Amino acid sequence: MSSHDTPVVAKSQAQFEYDRHHNAVHMRKQVINFAIMIFLTFIAFAVVAAGFSKYFIAPLVLLLACVQVVLQLYAFMHLEDKKTHFGGVIAFFMWMGILIAFTFFLAFLTIIWW
Amino acid sequence: MDFNTKFTPHTWPDHPEQATMEGKNKIVGFWIFLACEVVLFASLFATYLALKNKGPAGMEFTTQGLFDLPLAFAMTMLLLTSSLTSVYAIYHMRNFNYKGMQTWLAITLLLGLGFLALEIYEFQHYVHLGFTFDQSAFATAFYTLVGTHGFHVSLGLVWITTLLIRNAKRGLNLYNAPKFFVAALYWHFIDVVWVFIFTAVYLMGVIG
Amino acid sequence: MSSYTQKKGFGAAVWDYITTVDHKKLAVMYLLAGTLFFAIAGFEALLMRIQLMKPNNDFVSAGFFNELLTMHGTTMLFLAATPLLFAFMNMLVPLQIGARDVAFPFLNSLGFWLFFLGAVFLHLSFFMGGAPDAGWTSYASLSLYSPGHGIDFYVLGLQISGAGTLISGLNFIVTIITMRAPGMTFMRMPLFTWTTLVASALILFAFPPLTIGLLMMLVDRMFGGNFFDHTMGGNTVIWEHLFWIFGHPEVYILVLPAFGLFSEIIPAFSRKRLFGYSSMVFATILIGFLGFMVWAHHMFTTGLGPTANAIFAVATMAIAVPTGMKVFNWILTIWGGSIKVTTPMLYALGFIPSFVAGGVTGVMQASAPLDYQLHDSYFIVAHFHYVIVGGIVTALFGSAHFYWPIFFNRMLNEALGKLTFWVFFIGFHLTFFVQHFLGLMGMPRRVFTYMEGQGWDQFNYISTIGALMMGVGVILMVINCLMSIKGKPAGRDPWGDGRTLEWSIPQPIPFYNFRQTPLVRGLDPWWIEKQEGNKEATFAEPIGDIHMPNNSAIPFVISLGLFIAAFGALYNTDADKPWSIYVLIIGLAITFGAMIVRSVKDDHGFHLHKEDILEIEEQLYGKGGNK
Hints:
The complex is a heterotrimer of chains A (114), B (208) and C (627). Chain A has helices spanning 13-50, 54-76, 89-110. With 114 residues, chain A is mainly alpha-helical. In chain A, 22% of the residues are buried. Chain B is mainly α and 208 residues long. Chain B has helices at residues 21-51, 63-66, 69-94, 98-129, 137-166, 177-207. In chain B, α1 runs parallel beside α6 and α3 runs antiparallel to α6 (177-207). The mean pLDDT of chain B is 90. With 627 residues, chain C is mainly α. Chain C has a single domain (3-552, 603-621), classed as Cytochrome c oxidase-like, subunit I domain (Cytochrome C Oxidase, Chain A), CATH 1.20.210. Chain C is 66% helix and 1% strand. Chain C is built from 19 helices and 2 strands. In chain C, strands 1-2 form a two-stranded antiparallel ribbon. Chains in contact: A-B, A-C, B-C. The B-C interface holds B 2-4, 21, 24-25, 28-29, 32-33, 35-37, 39-40, 43-44, 47, 50-51, 54-56, 59, 133-134, 136-141, 144, 162-163, 166, 175 and C 103-104, 166, 170-171, 173-174, 177-179, 204-205, 207-209, 211-213, 215-216, 219-220, 223-227, 229, 231-235, 238, 242, 245, 596, 599-600, 602, 604. Chain A: This is Cytochrome B6. Chain A: It is a multi-pass membrane protein.
């Protein structure tokens, strides 16, 4: 199938308004997601600036970073979109990359030691 | 229907970026590329973590003495906000509002430019202090990691600018919609990498 | 007569190949380029073997021997085996999944030209002040202090050709995910397509660490970086990690498609469905995954500590399980089949025991305490040549015979093919079997000569004789290929036993592959059609317009720009060559200029209309079209 085969379909007024509304609601959700991200960032910087124990800060900021990345991937980048991403194949590749990345961190932090 | 078919808001498809096979391929291909970039940045991060604070005997620079939280916070805010503005741009693309999309992409560009300016200022500041690229293994790893991210940001800026100029006069069609969408994906990914940089490099650096 | 059916002049034909985005033409180009580098690297191996034929030989100097062994390894892995497998992937994958081309034809061409010009750049080092000489692994503690520009050629050449490989890998992944014909579900894909998918995923995740490692080497050697300099806080072990994080999956990148090729050949000539198809798929994915978790077994003697060594040893041994599954599946496919011992089948039958031998010595080395003994000895050389020659080269030779009609619409000579097999196969075992014993007797690898009286003389002599036999085998193979030019057209499904879609296409294959997209009704679709007495694949659509991509010279120009820029970067460290910076800038300007032209110029491709298709088919297959 190429662009050649894509039919041009005019939407009915009701469909058009529904889609517009749907997009607007979606956009509002994105702004909320953004607010959450800003909030998480703020907490991360705040705990460091407040000078808590590093054994409390380190795991907390790492956790916050992971939450934020998952939010970016799923909310802003739509990684969950099964229909257009060939049934999760894309998400599989992405998570595989993340898993392999994790083994690098583990190895470089543990067995490069002199 | 051709790539150059003119649309109205009523005929514009719901997911214009995926209406053609070329568009679908482009998006799948770009995601796969991003998976590859994850591993690329992971190699740089892992090396940085292994070389953090390592230098010749008696090196006076450490992450704790060097990094400045307010600056990193400002950079983070600029880049995070630019991620939201690119979401707005795609929202307007879906609504066939070309002017809106152009405006929000231009705002994204400005925020990205601001980020880049702060980064250049930061690097220049460090070099001024004597923390040059060849000063220590730590310096080399730091500049390479953050610099590679900065290079990605500049590439994104050039990319989006080129897209805007090229399509300035011809409006949205099914040929350029996937291009805008993919550029926005790239911009989000830059943000994802930055989240790890400000956490692993700056925040974890300040606490030592 | 339309422009599609006109004969072209020589210049136009060359231009056509430089600008082509057709996966079949690119496959032929990969085949030719891969064969060229295979011959060069094989010649280097022969020079080394002649040097080692007798003790205290002075056929080549010690320094040149280092260059030979480095270039032999680098060329064979990056520039011979990879492109030869890419030739088969490019040719077969779109045909096997019923697609008209790959997902990104432009990137396919870019991948080829980056690989080719990167490879040429690396080989120019021989004529421009010395080749790299730190081994194909180029460990930082050696390569940082290697004088001259040899290592710089290695770093820049591999960076460019590695980018090409990465681009091609990405392209295959997207092609397989999105371009499958109707009915071609993941679990109906031919095994070669499956292994290509997994191998491409490995390329995708393994090449970035290499890119970063090379970047660090570049920065350290040319711009005063300190990644690997221990006096400045750096650590040479980081290079070893990054290199092997890439290097171990690289082995699977090469061997998995080889497994896939044999998984096509064995069922065809056993005339039986592949035994345990789903377990084969599972084993492929598992090998791919485990391949990323075992890299440190190349570094047991680096001193990672007993815990790390134990973990990596266990993970390494675990890979033997899925590999064993595959071996049993092949044997059980042959078992009870109606076997035809053709040349490809002969290679497959030779492959199984040879590869198992290589795999078993691998499990021996996976045991860390024993590896302390075997490390850097000829035992290692014997092991990986059993895997690579016994696994990959036999696959390449066997499937060259098998798929020659798909590539060129000609058959290779069977009698000569069988002779080639026996000469090559006996030569291979003669060369490498005795090297196991040399290793156990203590002969270290990568030495340019040895003293007499250590009991190594006899075995080294035998090994060299075997290497010469392998050389003769390769020459016979090339003669066979050249002879096929004069052969008769092979026609559709010339073996009579083709199972998958690529055999269902009438020969010669038109540039749009499928006049109508086929409908896939099960595993081995062409076999199903033949079982039902059909002379033609079942189609999923009526004859209609076909959308095809335009040719483009831009990939060549982008690659050429990087090729030029690489010379600038290379000589930039020399104080007496101030012009080098301009070469660098001009090269990069060409590359980025070409990229910008690509971005701003619309490329919609073109439509091939029904009348054109019918005219092309009439010209290819005679009046009445393809019936």
